[in-house]
C-alpha cells in the first residue's frame, strides 16, 4: 500500500528556486545529469518531522533532487531495497505520472504531494509530456 499526503512545505517557493539554481549548476558541470544530491544535514527539518510524524523512521540517510525535462525524460522501472519517499516540488501540466505496476498504482504528481514507496516496489516515472520541468525530491530513511 502507498502512503501519500499533501505536505504543504511553507518554504516551497524558496526551495524551488534553490533547486532550479542547483539544476543549472549541475548541467553546467555535466549536461547528462538529471539529479543532484543534498546532504541530510542541509535539509530543512520540516521533512524529517514529516517522516517522524507518520512513524516512517527517525533518520534521513540520502537525498537527491531529480528533474525531468519536457518531451524528453522518463525514468524506467527500478526499485530500492528500502522505503523511499518522493516530494514533488514543481509539477507542470503533463508531468509524468509515478507508476507502481505491481501495486497497480498510478499517481499524478502534484506540488506538495509526499509519496512513500515501499521497499522493493518497482516504480517508474512516465514521460514528461508537458512544457515545463518537473522537479521532485526523493529520500531514503530508516
CA-based shape: globular
Give the class-level CATH name: Mainly Beta
User: Could you name the CATH homologous superfamily?
Assistant: q2cbj1_9rhob like domain
CATH architecture: Sandwich
Main sheet strand line-up: 1-8-5-10-3-2
Order of helices and strands: EHEHEEEEEEEE
Report the radius of gyration as a whole number of Å.
14 Å
Q: How many structural domains in the coordinates?
A: 1
Distance between the termini: 18 Å
Please indicate the percent range of residues in DSSP E strands (runs of 2 or more): 35-45%
User: What is the helical fraction, as a range of percent?
Assistant: 10-25%
How would you classify the helix and strand content by structural class?
alpha+beta
Q: Uncertain regions: pLDDT < 50 for 5+ in a row?
A: none
Mean pLDDT: 89
Q: Count of helical segments?
A: 2
CATH fold type: Jelly Rolls
Largest sheet: 6 strands, antiparallel
Q: Count the strands? A: 10
Report what the structure shows:
With 142 residues, the chain is of the alpha+beta class. The chain has a single domain (3-141), classed as q2cbj1_9rhob like domain (Jelly Rolls, Sandwich). It is 19% helix and 35% strand. It has two helices and ten strands, in the order βαβαββββββββ. It has helices at residues 12-29, 45-53, and strands at residues 3-6, 35-38, 60-68, 75-78, 84-90, 98-100, 105-107, 113-117, 123-125, 134-141. A six-stranded antiparallel beta sheet has the order 1-8-5-10-3-2, with helices on one face. A hairpin with a 4-residue loop joins strand 6 (98-100) and strand 7. It is globular. The relative contact order is 0.27.
Amino acid at each position: 500500500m502507498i502512503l501519500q499526503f499533501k505536505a504543504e512545505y511553507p518554504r516551497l517557493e524558496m526551495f524551488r528556486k534553490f533547486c532550479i539554481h542547483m539544476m543549472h549548476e549541475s548541467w553546467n558541470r555535466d549536461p547528462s545529469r538529471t539529479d543532484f544530491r543534498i546532504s541530510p544535514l542541509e535539509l530543512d527539518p520540516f521533512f524529517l518531522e514529516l517522516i517522524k510524524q507518520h512513524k516512517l523512521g527517525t533518520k534521513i540517510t540520502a537525498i537527491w533532487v531529480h528533474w525531468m525535462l519536457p518531451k524528453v525524460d522518463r525514468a524506467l522501472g527500478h526499485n530500492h531495497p528500502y522505503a523511499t519517499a518522493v516530494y514533488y516540488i514543481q509539477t507542470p501540466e503533463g508531468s509524468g505520472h509515478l507508476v507502481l505496476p505491481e501495486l497497480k498504482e498510478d499517481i499524478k504528481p502534484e506540488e506538495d504531494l509526499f509519496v512513500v514507496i515501499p521497499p522493493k516496489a518497482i516504480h517508474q516515472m512516465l514521460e514528461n509530456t508537458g512544457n515545463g520541468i518537473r522537479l521532485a525530491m526523493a529520500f531514503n530513511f530508516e
